[in-house]
Design goal:
Radius of gyration: 14 Å
Oligomer: single chain
Structural class: alpha+beta
Distance between the termini: 44 Å
Largest sheet: 4 strands, mixed
Helix content: 25-40%
Number of domains: 1
């Protein structure tokens, strides 16, 4: 049996795993989220829960990052940084009419225990 999974499949598997997903926060992103008044009190823990629920209910992240300005700005970064970046706009109508923008990277691509790291979250404009 072939157990190989694409990176996007691993991302969705990590986010949907267990009760809260196999999701961690980048330290700087966590600090930004905690101090971002635009998040209207939504905590990193709440964002993780919303992302987990979004994927468990069939929501999907987008991949790959293809905006030329982003690729150009990050051309000097290692390939894994550019190639394993994903984003979603999670519906949160009661707080954000355009949704909550969440960026993650595939942090650990172990096919049995993949993990993602949230690197950015803010109201979608």
């Amino acid at each position: 049996m072939d157990v190989s999974q694409t990176p996007i499949e691993l991302v969705h598997r990590a986010i949907a795993a267990g009760i809260f997903g196999q999701i961690q926060w980048d330290v700087r992103a966590d600090e930004r989220a905690r101090s971002n008044r635009d998040l209207q009190g939504l905590t990193p823990e709440g964002i993780r829960r919303l992302l987990h629920e979004f994927v468990c209910q069939g929501g999907r992240l987008e991949r790959p990052e293809s905006r030329s300005e982003w690729l150009q700005a990050n051309a000097d970064k290692p390939a894994y940084y550019r190639d394993y970046w994903y984003r979603a706009v999670v519906p949160v109508a009661d707080l954000f009419p355009n949704g909550l923008f969440v960026e993650v990277r595939l942090f650990d691509d172990d096919p049995q225990e993949p993990w993602v790291e949230i690197v950015n979250a803010h109201p979608q404009v």
